[in-house]
């Protein structure tokens, strides 16, 4: 992973963790603040109702006993709804009320006794202002808690992501370290240590498998070249003896061509297996020349299967572009072999070659759309494969095309045949 991408991913994770921490703090602090304000308001209203009820009973008792209650414009009595009460209080029902008038906040207690209504007012303006101040203090506390949560979230996130960032850096440079290196030894046995241990187990298994594949590739390349050299040397000796007739020379030429083709294929497979770019070392030829050679090579097979194999050349006057010959042959031969295997008896297979493309079309049973992508995977075969088909031909075609920057495509529908086309992009000679 590039350093810029790694930093972006780390910032994204850190931002997500901090936001999660802040949102949780906001939810908890907001809920607690709302519950505290709501419960305090309910409790104060209940206590005020009790206090105002006791106060109106006390003042009414003094009034009925002939004692001046001493609350002018705060204590009223008379028939309900009469002019004994100010107009803005006449419509109140018995019970406790909180009202605003003239920029003041009033608590009003209304109580009826023996057909008479008694009403007591108290000015709670300063108290309500203190309540508003306390509410703002709660909001300020909430804001402070959010700021603290944000700071703690940043600190905790950095502390949490520091070992993850170190592990990511070690993973990105793991290929340059000695085989069987274990990253988990640098971490405590927590979740990050478990993650490092899991990576160690997976990477070391892949490392061993890759090593086995590399040894196998080297062994195959070494062991196959020896019999190929023997075949080539024997062919040269036979040709020098000049004792073969025309049929013998034709057979000898086919053996030499087969040995040369096997050597080229071996070079191609080793190049793909090693991931190297040795295509510049190969001989180069045009797509038309490759198509002509493959037509000659596969015509006998098509005749034995009672199939028609033909070649069409497009833009014959266009300048021929040259590409690595072994790779062209490997791609086209596998496409032709695939068509001859699956198109069925009496089918027609047409090879088309142009300056910068190759195409193999058949009028066989076709391929369902849902299988178009999977058919290029290794070991995927058709419904009626030949006995010697391992399902690797189209996979090899795709790997060569990816290596060279070419593009292989498939157009096919059930009952309408198949068309495999290779656009020869990249660099041409």
Automatic annotation (TrEMBL):
Gene3D superfamilies linked to this entry: 1.10.287.130, 6.10.340.10, Histidine kinase-like ATPase, C-terminal domain
Annotated ranges, domain Histidine kinase: 219-428
Residue stretches making up the HAMP domain: 158-211
Transmembrane portions of the chain: 12-35, 136-156
Location relative to the cell: Membrane
Molecular functions (GO terms): kinase activity
Enzyme class: transferase
Catalytic activity line of the entry: ATP + protein L-histidine = ADP + protein N-phospho-L-histidine
EC number: 2.7.13.3
SUPFAM superfamilies: ATPase domain of HSP90 chaperone/DNA topoisomerase II/histidine kinase, Homodimeric domain of signal transducing histidine kinase
Keywords (A to Z) from UniProt: Kinase, Membrane, Phosphoprotein, Transferase, Transmembrane, Transmembrane helix, Two-component regulatory system
Protein name (Swiss-Prot/TrEMBL): histidine kinase
Native source species: Achromobacter seleniivolatilans
UniProt lineage: Bacteria, Pseudomonadati, Pseudomonadota, Betaproteobacteria, Burkholderiales
């Amino acid at each position: 992973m590039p350093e810029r991408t790694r930093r972006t991913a780390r910032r994204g994770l850190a931002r997500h963790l901090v936001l999660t921490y802040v949102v949780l703090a906001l939810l908890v602090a907001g809920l607690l603040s709302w519950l505290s304000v709501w419960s305090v308001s309910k409790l104060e209203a209940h206590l005020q109702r009790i206090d105002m009820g006791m106060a109106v009973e006390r003042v009414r008792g003094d009034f009925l006993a002939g004692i001046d209650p001493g609350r002018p414009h705060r204590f009223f009595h008379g028939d309900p709804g009469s002019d004994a009460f100010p107009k803005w209080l006449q419509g109140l029902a018995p019970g406790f009320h909180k009202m605003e008038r003239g920029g003041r906040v009033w608590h009003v207690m209304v109580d009826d006794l023996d057909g008479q209504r008694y009403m007591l007012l108290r000015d709670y303006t300063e108290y309500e202002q203190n309540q508003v101040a306390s509410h703002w203090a709660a909001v300020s506390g909430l804001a402070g808690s959010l700021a603290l949560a944000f700071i703690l979230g940043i600190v905790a996130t950095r502390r949490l992501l520091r070992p993850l960032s170190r592990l990511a850096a070690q993973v990105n440079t793991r290929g340059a370290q000695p085989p069987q290196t274990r990253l988990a030894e640098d971490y405590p046995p927590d979740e990050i240590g478990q993650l490092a241990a899991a990576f160690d187990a997976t990477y070391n298994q892949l490392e061993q498998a890759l090593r086995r594949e590399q040894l196998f590739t080297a062994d195959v390349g070494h062991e196959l070249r020896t019999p190929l050299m023997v075949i080539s040397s024997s062919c040269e000796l036979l040709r020098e003896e000049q004792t073969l007739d025309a049929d013998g020379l034709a057979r000898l030429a086919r053996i030499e061509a087969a040995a040369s083709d096997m050597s080229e294929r071996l070079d191609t497979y080793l190049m793909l297996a090693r991931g190297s770019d040795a295509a510049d070392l190969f001989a180069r030829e045009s797509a038309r020349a490759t198509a002509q050679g493959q037509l000659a090579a596969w015509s006998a097979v098509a005749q034995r299967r009672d199939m028609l194999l033909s070649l069409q050349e497009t833009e014959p006057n266009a300048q021929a572009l040259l590409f690595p010959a072994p790779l062209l042959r490997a791609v086209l031969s596998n496409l032709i072999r695939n068509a001859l295997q699956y198109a069925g008896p009496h089918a027609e297979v047409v090879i088309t070659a142009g300056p910068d493309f190759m195409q193999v079309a058949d009028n066989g049973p076709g391929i369902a759309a849902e299988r178009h992508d999977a058919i290029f995977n290794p070991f995927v075969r058709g419904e009626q494969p030949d006995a010697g088909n391992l399902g690797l031909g189209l996979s090899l075609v795709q790997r060569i095309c990816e290596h060279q920057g070419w593009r292989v495509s498939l157009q096919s529908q059930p009952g309408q045949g198949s068309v495999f086309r290779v656009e020869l992009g990249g660099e041409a000679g």
